[in-house]
Amino acid sequence: MIPIKSEAEIECMRVAGRAASSVLGKLVGLVRPGITTKEIDDAAAEFMSEAGCKSAFLGYRGFPSNTCISVNEEVVHGIGSGRRLQVGDIVKLDVGVDKGGWIGDTATTVSVGGADAGTAKLLNVTENALLAAIQHAYSGKRLGDICSAVQRVVESNGFSVVREFVGHGVGRNLHEEPQIPNFGKAGTGPKLKPGMTLAIEPMVNVGRADVKILADNWTVVTKDGSLSAHFEHTVLITRGEPEILTWREAL
Asked: Is the pTM value of this prediction over 0.90?
């Protein structure tokens, strides 16, 4: 059963979404050569405290960081460490906050000190796949319309979509129904209804789709070592236009 939020609950989701996007925007501003991913994660804890929220990730199934920070071939679920970012890296920043018992979940990928043409294309295509998916997040459409939109944009540009990890419903819990794969068939799956809140998150690889989990039991990397990008928004299904609850002006 996909949860349907009431108007009061939707307003709580808006507040959580704004908090998540605010924290993410501040983290993007910290990305520079020489900073460690642990320093970024520590700053995230401070930003969350200032925003009156807490990490939805820290302690979730034992996860040890406030945010997921994944570099280059790391796809998702990277853990803050002493690794220093270098010019040419791309870093995925995934922020989930709990604000008053409601979750805001959002992610972006940024280049460190500039990106070459190939890397820039990866980031642009991944973000465009997310925006294309949101254009199908209308009441009366099917979940498969969202999934197929991501796949179509990604594969038409010569990249691959990660299949083992997917988007999801979000609300009082970080992961709710439905699961939202980044591939699928249009016109299939559950019908979208007003009040549904969905975390849509394309994960896109330059090379093959295959991934593996490192020895820390969290960090997901591409099997072939190719670069990967990740973008995410929490989106509300309404009676009209979809509402991006985690929108940032920088995006």
From this structure: yes
